[in-house]
Amino acid sequence: MSSSSEIYLDRISKELGVFDHIPTGEDQRLTVTTAAVVQFSVLPSDTMFGFWTSEDNDIRFTLDGSNPNANNGHLIIESSVGIWNTAWLSRARFIAIGGTGIIHMTPGRVHK
Question: Mean pLDDT per 10-residue run, the chain (112 residues)?
Answer without folding.
Answer: 60 61 90 97 94 95 97 96 94 96 93 64
